[in-house]
Design goal:
- The longest helix is centred in the middle third of the chain and has 18 residues.
- It is built from eleven helices and 45 strands.
- Helix 5 crosses helix 6, helix 6 runs parallel beside helix 8 and helix 7 runs parallel beside helix 9.
- By secondary structure, it is α+β, with helices and mostly antiparallel strands.
- The protein has four domains: 159 residues, Jelly Rolls, CATH 2.60.120; 147 residues, Sandwich (Jelly Rolls); 103 residues, Immunoglobulin-like (Sandwich), CATH 2.60.40; 346 residues, Alpha-Beta Barrel (TIM Barrel).
- The chain has a nine-stranded mixed sheet with strand order 43-42-45-40-39-38-25-41-44.
Length: 804
């Protein structure tokens, strides 16, 4: 049991009269409990606690009921994070019918209780009091390893039940947004930046402190013959950039001969640009170098992966270091006018409503509420996925528990079913493969579709089962052969209950990734090449077993945590067509003609694959969402599900170089506030809502394009409403860009409906001044050719009404 910590006398308690409701929590506070424990806060209590008590509630529908034996505590724990931006622990507390409890609040740093704390006055009976304790009083202000706090009984006697609600960490100062970014993309800025990694084979010190051009550190390079300082990135588009710039210092001796080279998809582009021999200038230690991307052979390319600064004289310079600092790709000047076209006659696929789906989470305590139903209706959501995520392979639906655990999750199958049926969503359910059985999955089909008549149609067998991060209790975990063999059993037993359901199998994008067992391989029937990756082995096994899935499940995240880049993300969605083509080819190769009936569905998409940072709650992530939808609608993908509706805030990457005013990350579109205010909806929610004015199913995708990658245009034709809907995304961080739009094979009326979301609305959520919602207006247009000027970092839908 944690030892009792004696208090300081410092305490701030704000009393609010019985029955009164507090003002809304500040929009940039960090929620801890609001009808449910906010993810990723955890219950580490050793008092008896009920997080879903309805006996005495301050706001919303539930509160935390705490029954404390001697020295026991309500303990709320978070992964270690920095409290620099936070000032107070705040919560509301009620002594219940008896009152009189004496409690003590203690912070934990690195999970260790601190030697100072705060005693609370004896609690009043049946009265809500707001408590606000400065972190300084708990010894936790400016701490880099804050892990939570206790509310502990300290008299040594049993206490009657008391109640806690609306728990948060409040900001110490207002969070202000950074200025709009217009500096391009950093490769190195005191550290390798924006997803660029150190792949050097010269000797590198990336935290060198002398000499430094700016900031706190530079790159010190000691190069042997033909060795290089090497930067590597996931393949990226260079269309928005025109040059590579950096500052160089030859060191004390100079004389180095260096060649700067760039690589496209890992292939060196010759000849590069040679610098040197470098000379020492006693009056100017640092020199700025600007290299046009045309000189490096990588201008307007889609697959830049590497930049090298290589020693090319063949001499050993390891004892003669040189230094580099402030490397970046500079934005190219934007055109004075962007040209765009949309051809109403060049129709492609019909928009599938499953392209507008969200993941729902078992830990979402606010899911089965009128607020959630209202939010989903407001946003025009069309589909929901549950359980989803890695929890799927541990979740047992009958007990609403995870493998090896006894606690029940906040949202069970019936709570999910209530919201899904209320909102009319198409449903995807993930059956437990990792620790479940075909019999358990078949029983779930029977319960949902026969007993409850939910008629859930789409079922996935497991979640990312190729990955070591998934629970897998099979004798050969994460094994493609085992998965395919068991997939057959799952599909047979589940369809025996309901033959109308569709069963999906998990895939990746190529034939070689996740080669988990060296003793397994498959020969591609078309190419004759042998592959050991998940797709090849799993699909070949399905073909041998005579099994064809109804659809395959693909997940796509663009970046890794800590390497987020706004400029990269805003161009990342352009490769959806590549993924569709690759998966379709692999299906055809291994499954043969039967592959034609297999749909491709993406049931998870977001910007970063773990530990979301401030980019996920920023306007940039909303723009990325719109661009992802615009691009994937031009492919054969039949569904797209965002991860997720409501997830929980975490203290991920808060790099000030990323745009946005919130300093925390959250995969969700909204937080757990009930009701949800403007700032409780993140930019991705508003963009998702805006997109319902573009398409929600049944429209036909038509050809559209611009001549500048900094502005994207997409178009659909709605033959029922007789409209041509244009989706316009201005990805430039600082400039309103005039777009000359030419519409062909469609005669628009002289006025149009316009829906828009951007910096102004996001700012309104921050300040509380103005409307944070999607803007809606009617605009006059001269005809089929007109100019529209979208604001920087904005998404616009223009709905043109036909006159035919």
């Amino acid at each position: 049991m944690p030892r009792l910590i004696r208090p300081l006398s410092c305490l701030v308690v704000v009393l609010v009269g019985y029955g009164l409701r507090d003002a809304a929590r500040a929009q940039d506070d960090l929620p801890v409990y609001d009808d449910a424990l906010d993810s990723p806060w955890e219950n580490w209590s050793w008092a008896s606690v009920d997080f879903a008590s309805t006996a005495v509630v301050h706001s919303g529908t539930t509160a935390i009921a705490v029954t404390a034996s001697p020295w026991s505590a309500l303990s709320l724990r978070h992964a270690p994070f920095d409290t620099t931006d936070y000032g107070n622990v705040t919560f509301w507390i009620n002594g219940g019918p008896a009152g009189g409890q004496r409690l003590h609040v203690t912070a934990t740093l690195g999970d260790a209780g601190q030697a100072i704390g705060v005693d609370l006055p004896a609690l009043a009976a049946s009265t809500w009091q707001q408590v606000s304790i400065p972190l300084a009083a708990l010894g936790a202000d400016g701490a880099g390893n804050f892990t939570g706090f206790w509310i502990q009984e300290f008299t040594g006697a049993d206490q009657p039940t008391f109640f806690v609600d609306d728990v948060a960490l409040s900001r110490s100062v207002a969070v202000t947004p950074p200025p709009p970014l217009n500096h391009g993309m950093a490769l190195y800025d005191d550290a390798f930046a924006e997803g660029w990694q150190n792949w050097s084979w010269a000797t590198i010190n990336s935290a060198n402190t002398k000499p430094v051009n700016s900031g706190t550190s530079s790159l010190a390079v000691r190069a042997g013959p033909f060795t290089a300082l090497a930067f590597h990135h996931a393949a990226m588009d260079t269309s928005l950039f025109d040059s590579l710039t950096f500052w160089i210092n030859p060191g004390a001796r100079g004389g180095q001969t260096l060649t700067v080279r760039a690589l496209l998809a890992g292939v060196i582009i010759e000849p590069g640009v040679t610098l040197g021999p470098l000379t020492v200038d006693p009056n100017q230690a640092w020199t700025k170098i600007t290299l046009p991307l045309t000189a490096l052979g990588v201008a307007r390319k889609t697959d830049l992966t590497d930049v090298w600064v290589m020693e090319t004289s063949g001499t050993d310079q390891s004892a003669n270091p040189f230094y580099l600092d402030d490397l970046r790709l500079d934005l190219a000047p934007a055109p004075a006018q962007v040209s765009a076209i949309a051809d109403g006659a060049k129709e492609g696929r019909t928009v599938d409503p499953r392209m507008f789906g969200l993941n729902a989470a078992i830990w979402d305590g606010a899911f089965n509420t009128p607020t959630t139903a209202s939010l989903l209706t407001e946003a025009g959501n069309q589909a929901l996925r549950f359980v989803g995520g890695s929890a799927s392979d541990a979740y047992h639906w009958q007990t609403n528990t995870s493998e090896g655990e006894t606690f029940q999750w906040a949202t069970n199958i019936d709570a999910f079913g209530q919201i899904a049926t209320t909102t009319g969503a198409k449903v995807f359910l993930t059956a437990n493969y990792g620790s479940g059985t075909p019999e358990e999955a078949a029983a779930e089909v029977r319960y949902t579709n026969r007993t409850k008549n939910y008629n859930f149609q789409y079922w996935e067998i497991g979640n990312e089962n190729y990955g070591s991060w998934e629970l897998d209790n099979n004798a050969r975990p994460h094994d493609a052969v085992t998965y395919a063999t068991r997939f057959k059993d799952y599909a047979q037993q589940m369809k025996a209950v309901d033959p109308s359901i569709k069963i999906g199998a998990v895939v990746v994008v190529d034939e070689d990734s996740f080669a988990n067992y060296p003793d397994e391989s498959a020969v591609n029937p078309r190419t004759g090449a042998s592959h050991q990756g998940w797709n090849a082995v799993m699909l070949a096994t399905l073909a041998r077993l005579g099994v064809t899935p109804d659809y395959v499940i693909y997940h796509r995240y663009e970046q890794g945590p800590g390497g987020e880049s706004d400029s990269f993300l805003l161009n990342a969605a352009r490769t959806w067509a590549n993924d569709a083509a690759s998966i379709r080819q692999i299906l055809s190769d291994y499954l043969g003609p039967s592959a034609q009936q297999v749909e491709i569905i993406c049931t998870e998409n977001n910007s970063v694959f773990s530990n979301p940072g401030k980019q996920t709650t920023s306007l940039v992530n909303g723009l990325f969402m719109a661009d992802s939808v615009g691009n994937i609608l031009k492919t054969e993908f039949r569904g797209l599900f965002w991860w997720d509706l409501r997830n929980g805030s975490v203290s991920g990457n808060a790099n000030p170089g990323l745009y946005g005013w919130r300093k925390f990350g959250d995969y969700g579109l909204v937080n757990a506030a009930t009701p949800a205010g403007p700032a409780d909806r993140y930019p991705s929610f508003y963009v998702y809502k805006l997109l319902k004015s573009y398409a929600r199913g049944g429209e036909r995708v038509v050809a559209a394009a611009t001549d500048y990658t900094g502005v994207a245009i997409y178009a659909v034709r709605d033959h029922v409403a007789h409209t041509l809907n244009l989706l316009l995304i201005n990805k430039h961080p600082a400039l309103s860009l005039p777009v000359h739009i030419a519409v062909t094979n469609f005669k628009p009326a002289r006025s149009a409906e316009v829906f828009s979301y951007g910096i102004a609305q996001d700012d309104a959520a921050r300040t509380g001044t103005g409307s944070a919602d999607v803007a809606h207006a009617t605009a006059a247009i001269p005809g089929a050719t007109f100019t529209w000027t979208p604001a920087p970092y904005s998404v616009t839908v223009i709905r043109l009404q036909s006159t035919d």
